[in-house]
Amino acid sequence: MNAPPTRKIIHVDMDAFYASVEQRDDPSLKGRPVAVGGGHRGVVAAASYEARVFGVRSAMPSVTAKRRCPDLVFVKPRFDAYKAVSHQIRAIFADYTELIEPLSLDEAYLDVSEDRHGLGSARAIAEAIRARIRADTGLTASAGVSYCKFVAKLASDQNKPDGLCVIRPEQAQRYIASLPVGRFHGIGPRTAERLQAMGIETGADLQQLSLDELRGRFGNSGDWYYRICRGIDERPVRSSRRAKSVSAERTFDTDYRSPDDLRRELDRVAGLAWERIARSGVTGRTVTLKVKYSDFELISRAKSFADPITDLAGLSAAGHYLLEQLHPVPKGIRLLGLGLSNLTEVNGSVPLQLGLEI
C-alpha cells in the first residue's frame, strides 16, 4: 500500500499579541516594557518582549511583575481591538487555505498541503502570510512549518519573535531530541519538573524509554509522550474546531489539606485558567472545580450562573465557593483544576476586565 501524502502544516503565532497591539496603537509605548492587565492585585494577561527581558510573564501577579520591572507600564485590555485584528489575520489565512484551526485569538494551525497560489512550498506560503500580516496589521508573526501539528508548534517558537522555522520529516526526531521537555506542548511546568526528577530532561532522554515504561510511569499519557518524542502526530487540522471549555490545573509536589494552602493554590490555578480564557476570547456561565485526592480519587463540582463570568475575580470567587463546599477535606489533595464552560465569544463592544480586586 502507498503511504499517505505528507501533510504541510503551518503554525502561526502572533508575537506578544495583546501588548503588540497596544504598542502599535499608542506610539508612546513602543520600546517600553508593557503589561496588559494587572492593576491592584491583578495578574498580567500579556507582556511585551521588553518586559519579558525582566522575567515578566503572563499569569504573573502584577505586584511581582512590578517588582521585577519597576518601569513596567500597565494598560487595560481592549478585547474589541484584539478581536478585530484577529479577524483581519484569519481573513489572510483564508486566502491560502480553508483548513484553519484557531487555537486562540493569536494563533492557529493551517493545512497548506494544497498550494492554492502555486507558491511552490509551505515555507513560501508561510513567508507570504507573515508578510501580509505585517503589511495589513503592522504586527509581526512567527511561524513553524512541518508535516504535523506537534512539530509545527514547536518550530513556531524556535525563532521568536518575527521568525520562521521549517522542520522536515527527516529532521524531526533529531530536532525533538535536542529540546528540553518543558518545550513540548502538553507537558506543563509540573510535569516537566516530574520528568526532570526522573532524569528525563530532553527529548533524547524521553526517546530512550519504551512504551511500556512510559505507560507504567504516566498511565494513558505515556502513549502520547511515546509518540510525540518520535515526531508522530496524525491529528488533522480541524477547521470546525470549537472549544467546549477552557481550563487549567496543577499537580502539587506535596498533598494539601489546609484551607489556606488550598486557597493559595486555587488562586494560582485561577490565574492560569483566566490567561487561557482571555487568550481564547470567550466567556462562559459554568465554572467547574476538579479535585484529585492523594489516593487518585477524582471528583468535580460545578456551578452555573445566569450571567457570564467576565473577569478573574468572578472565576476565582466561584472556584473558592466550590472548594469551600468540600471542607473539611477527608484526605490530602494532589491536584486542583478550574475550568469555564457554556462558552460564548466575547462581545467586541464590551471587553473583559482583567486585574480587578479579589
Automatic annotation (TrEMBL):
Catalytic residues identified in the record: 107
Cofactor(s) the record lists: Mg(2+)
Keyword Cytoplasm (UniProt): yes
UniProtKB keywords: Cytoplasm, DNA damage, DNA repair, DNA replication, DNA-binding, DNA-directed DNA polymerase, Magnesium, Metal-binding, Mutator protein, Nucleotidyltransferase, Transferase
EC number per UniProt: 2.7.7.7
UniProt xrefs under Pfam families: IMS, IMS_C, IMS_HHH_1
Residues involved in Mg(2+) binding: 13, 106
Catalytic activity: DNA(n) + a 2'-deoxyribonucleoside 5'-triphosphate = DNA(n+1) + diphosphate
UmuC domain segment(s): 9-188
Substrate discrimination (site feature) positions: 18
Subcellular location(s) per record: Cytoplasm
Keyword Nucleotidyltransferase in annotation: yes
InterPro entries according to UniProt: DNA/RNA_pol_sf, DNA_pol_Y-fam_lit_finger_sf, DNA_pol_Y-fam_little_finger, DNA_polymerase-Y, DNApol_IV, IMS_HHH_1, Rev_trsase/Diguanyl_cyclase, UmuC
Main location: cytoplasm
Note on how the cofactor is bound: Binds 2 magnesium ions per subunit.
Recorded superkingdom: Bacteria
PANTHER family: DNA POLYMERASE KAPPA, DNA REPAIR POLYMERASE UMUC / TRANSFERASE FAMILY MEMBER
Subunit record text: Monomer.
Family as reported in the entry's similarity comment: Belongs to the DNA polymerase type-Y family.
Record function comment: Poorly processive, error-prone DNA polymerase involved in untargeted mutagenesis. Copies undamaged DNA at stalled replication forks, which arise in vivo from mismatched or misaligned primer ends. These misaligned primers can be extended by PolIV. Exhibits no 3'-5' exonuclease (proofreading) activity. May be involved in translesional synthesis, in conjunction with the beta clamp from PolIII.
Listed name of the protein: DNA polymerase IV
Organism per entry: Sphingomonas swuensis
Annotated gene: dinB
